[in-house]
Amino acid sequence: MPNNETNLQAVTLPHAWSVRSWRTRPAEQMPRYADPVELEGALAELGRLPPLVTSWEIQSLKQQLAEAQDGKRFLLQGGDCAESFDECSSDVISNRLKVLLQMSLVLVHGMRKPVVRVGRFAGQYAKPRSADMEIIDGVSLPSYRGDIVNGPAFTPEARRPDPRRMIKAHARSAMTMNFVRALIDGGFADLHHPEYWDLGWVGHSPLADEYRHMVAAIGDAVRFMETLSGAEVHNLNRVDFYTSHEALLLPYEESMTRQVPRNWGWFDLSTHFPWIGMRTAQINGGHVEFLRGIRNPVAVKVGPSVTPDQLLRLVDVLNPEDEPGRLTFIHRMGAAHIGAKLPALLDAMRRDGRRVLWVCDPMHGNTEPTANGYKTRRFANIAGEVEQAFDLHAAAGTRLGGVHLELTGEDVTECLGGARELTELDLERAYRTCVDPRLNYEQALEIAMLIVRKQNQ
Ligand code: PEP
Ligand code: MN
Description:
- It is built from 14 helices and 14 strands.
- The protein is α/β, with parallel strands linked by helices.
- It has an 8-stranded parallel barrel with strand order 1-2-5-8-9-10-11-14, surrounded by 5 helices. Strands 3-4 form a two-stranded antiparallel sheet. The chain has a two-stranded antiparallel ribbon with strand order 6-7.
- Strand 9, helix 10 and strand 10 form a beta-alpha-beta unit.
- Helix 4 (90-111) runs parallel beside helix 14 and helix 12 packs parallel to helix 14.
- The N and C termini lie far apart (62 Å).
- Manganese (II) ion (MN) binds next to loops.
- Residues 81, 128, 246, 277-279, 301, 332, 364, 436 line the site of phosphoenolpyruvate.
- InterPro entries: Aldolase_TIM, DAHP_synth_2.
- Its EC number is 2.5.1.54.
- Its cofactor is Mn(2+); Co(2+); Cd(2+).
């Protein structure tokens, strides 16, 4: 019976998942810790520390993402490329929250649908790098992999991967979470008072008038509804805010992954919404294996080299039950490539009846060096990729359900162009990122306005 034999061999039963099963797979981008005892000690300590989020918050985010998948909501995901331990400060955190709240206000007002707000913060401390080592003047040291792994200074001490940094990252994430939760519970995100979210330097912005106009219109609408109903409109004084980060450093994620009494299964309680980056999305790799077994909603970055077949296999592994809200694909192609690369992926998914939430990251495919030595992104390319994404989804019969952005509430000059037409010379004034260039407040608001215009076309 040669046929049966062949069939038997072809069937590979899915192997059992455990919080440690990723360790049996090749995992890219892992630091090499010198002392296994020190590493296990840090992980054991982390495993005893309380989690940063809860399983019921994670479930409610999954529900909101399911609604975004159905076109009833729009996802706004944004924050720093990398948080740093030094910038875990009140101003940086509240300014970032202000920008995200203002953008979401523009989106809610313009799109007439609720927004799912997800920060790239409270744990965005691990970075993938293109090379393991960095060589300067003949000296070779391990690359900087984010504050959770090592330090940015080019010295052997700073660059040594230090497991104790995971404990510090957990603490800084908890402080960030705590402050965000306190601000929101205290009424910071109250729709009755959008003026709380104004950033000092915004007054002179070319966009200020349009924004103020919108705020006034929303204030009128809120008061009108309250007059009609004779009462305060509740849930306008509180918005939901969720967190996300790249689930890159798997030993850390493993130690934060717990079984909870209230919900069945395993949850990664370091964040609500972990994603895996373009460099660690190998179907047989450790990162996909880890994400496979946790119950959080998960996302995968999809770059220009991904084939339709690879995408379908990722769905097989990460969302075999077709659970709504479970899987998000964040495409990041670059303005020059999205037109050639995205349609085949959208077609394959639609033809196969696979459902995911599609999100556009217009940042990571549009990074380029300037003549004066900065790593930058052109606003025109970022805006162009978002616009093309809307058109390509419409043409393919799929839906763009959100955006993923790198932005900051600080007055930085890292991306070129925008309403203030920043030039290469402007970059010298306030270029502060130690990893990727971010949209500043004004450029971020401009993207929100552009999304509204595009959607309503
Ligand atoms: C990032 O989001 O900072 C990142 C490194 O993205 P990607 O994996 O898409 O390159
Ligand atoms: Mn980045």
